[in-house]
Amino acid sequence: MPASVSNSPVFNLALAAALGVTMVSLAVRLKIPSIALLLLTGILVGPSVLGILQPDALGSGLQFVVGMAVAVILFEGGLTLDLEGARRSPIVIRRMLTVGVLITWLGTALAAWWLLELSFDLALLCGSLVIVTGPTVVSPLLRRIGVRERLKHILYWEAVLIDAIGVFIAVLCLEWLVPDAGRAWSPLLRFGARVALGAGVGIFTGITMALLLRHHVIPDEQVNIFVLGVALFAYAACEAVLPESGILAVIIAGLIVGMTKPKDLDNLKRFKLELTELGIGMLFILLSARLQVSRFFDYGWGLLATIGVLLLVLRPLAIATATVGHRFSVQEKLFLSWIAPRGIIAAFMASLFALELSHDPEMAAQAPILETFTFAVIGITVVIQGFSASWVARVLGLRVGSRQTWLIVGDVAVAGALAKGVRAAGGSAVALAPIDKGEEPASPAPHIVHHDPLDRSLLDDPRFADIGHVLSATPNLDFDQLVCQRWSEVVGKDGCTYICSHEELEEAKHRHDPHALCWDGIDPGDLLHGLDAGSLAVTTFEIGPDEDPGRFGPHVTPLLWVDAEGQVSIWREGQLSEITAPGQTVAAYQRIPDLDVLVGDALVVPDEQATFDEVVENLLAAAAQHQPNLGVEALKQSILERERSMPTALGSGVAIPHAYCPSAEHSRCYVANVPAGIDANTPDSEPIHLVFLVLSPVGKAEDHLRSLASIARLVHDRSYVSFLERQGSSEELLSRIHERA
């Protein structure tokens, strides 16, 4: 390659960017850690091997590019940092971020001082660079392997929260190592000045950006570039006054903007995430290309021994200390001890500090050890731990099998009800309610995630690590299709389904859309409207191979099926006849509000010769047990006299005798099932099997009519009436009626 090309800063920067994004994309496709490919590619194309890429051609511009990239990455980290998740973090994570950090930092420093024969000050700096683990490595790793929920939670939040801690300890160590020429300030005083400057500028910048975004001062089309420009300016301004103070400024600014949740927050996160992925790919190629392979051999066994102490002694010690007093098995502690891959922040900070030390005549000779040691730790942890994690989890017995959790996307009422039903039936489900960008949920619920389902950052949340199936059930068909397209990249085409109407299903079949299904008699819009209005509810029904089909009349629509093993599937037409083992269905049903309060007792009258008068007498006797001073004889005469002149038989085997009762406080109903039937003068000449006796307080005509209407709604379907007639005990009869409440 001509020297004019290989020494061109523009060519080298563009080549690094192209290789970086290519390797990141390839890693996603191969489902392997991207850092492994980036590190290998950078070394391969760098001066030590092929010599295609010449990072030194950028000169002093390399430090500038690295600094700006670190600023964008840390601003994005602050922007996406979930403080609520941090507050939910258990004491184990807090110990890992305090005692565990000290063990890692000081223990690594002692090992480097002894085994690598570094000065103790430089050893402290080396130790500080490998404190961080990094969510960019941990999150994909957790998605790839299935382990217990609390292990994922601990590893994820450690990676998310430890970045800022590690960065500031590293800055403090750098202050201690490189005093400013001509200044007599102590390192702690200089560090305090940097913290004060960075915090002040960060708070001012964050509040200013948040206010401008909240009041829509910045046009929507310019929000992303405005925030990027202001964040970079805040970083550069701090760096111009006190080097290394800009890091804190961008973290705090991003945190404040994220906490205020402006309208364009989701777009902003996506934009920053794309920039971060571009920056990570490009810079990791550039920085790893600077590595001289010979240096890894120069440090020999001392380097490997130091890394061995870090991974095999200090990490287990930190985990053992953090889990004292908590019920963690030996296997769980071993797994947590094994998984601690280092990532992007460690690499960038090491390179940034090495570049800075290279300008100091006294420290220039020792600067390469920072990159050599840190990149060696990154390479070993990412490759060995990343590729062995699944095997280690399986050997330790911590695998939870294939991903079975269902992600249910829909409005709060729909997604929340379906996910709750799945969990009640023994399955695993997460409810995700779409929310407008930056908008606060109207009624936040702890069991419902409010977020944009199309946002890829969801995959970093441990609650979504085990998603194996996605069900989108919103009234917006186009949105449902987008959700399935996006998530099919994660769970595969067979794992994504959206619910539509029968007409839309026919159209989807013509388009060969594999994601479309429909429920029998109800679509997501109907379900949402019914749940919001209170006319529908979602519950679970235990059913078995011999289930009576009459239980599921037009008032009940099965939606999902959960078998005895917790496996979830979407209910299919005709599935009831195919059930061979007990399970539960999550179903929507037409509610009859307060029916469980209205119907107070039930009887089964086995007498084959029972008359209507005898059944009424039995019902009044049952009512008298619940309502003292009922005046049974007077009520009986009143009811029977009315029956002779105005029969209350509705047909289909149902009669609803009713009366006002002076001693009643509330309307109550008592039901009798007469399997043999009562011959009576009915509209359809069928015998009466179900008798509903309604008693209401005097002067409460409205309540009385409402109670009669509720019973009429209950028995309007002949198949359901037949189902109630087949209930063999009073308990079964009352339970089936109360299911409709």
UniProtKB/TrEMBL annotation:
Transmembrane segments annotated in the record for this chain: 6-28, 35-55, 61-83, 95-116, 122-142, 154-179, 191-213, 225-242, 275-293, 299-322, 334-355, 375-396
GO MF: antiporter activity
Membrane topology recorded in Swiss-Prot or TrEMBL: Multi-pass membrane protein
BP terms from Gene Ontology: proton transmembrane transport
SUPFAM superfamilies: Phoshotransferase/anion transport protein
Domain of life of the native organism: Bacteria
Any Pfam family: PTS_EIIA_2
Signal sequence range: none
Keywords: Antiport, Cell membrane, Ion transport, Membrane, Transmembrane, Transmembrane helix, Transport
Major subcellular site: membrane
Intracellular or extracellular location(s): Cell membrane
Residue ranges of domain PTS EIIA type-2 in the record: 596-740
InterPro entries to which the protein is assigned, alphabetical: Cation/H_exchanger_TM, Na+/solute_symporter_sf, PTrfase/Anion_transptr, PTS_EIIA_type-2_dom
GO cellular component terms listed in the entry, alphabetical order: plasma membrane
Gene3D superfamilies, per the entry: 1.20.1530.20, Mannitol-specific EII, Chain A
PANTHER family documented for this protein: NA(+)/H(+) ANTIPORTER 1, NA(+)_H(+) ANTIPORTER 2-RELATED
UniProt-recorded name of the protein: Sodium/hydrogen exchanger
Organism: Haliangium ochraceum (strain DSM 14365 / JCM 11303 / SMP-2)
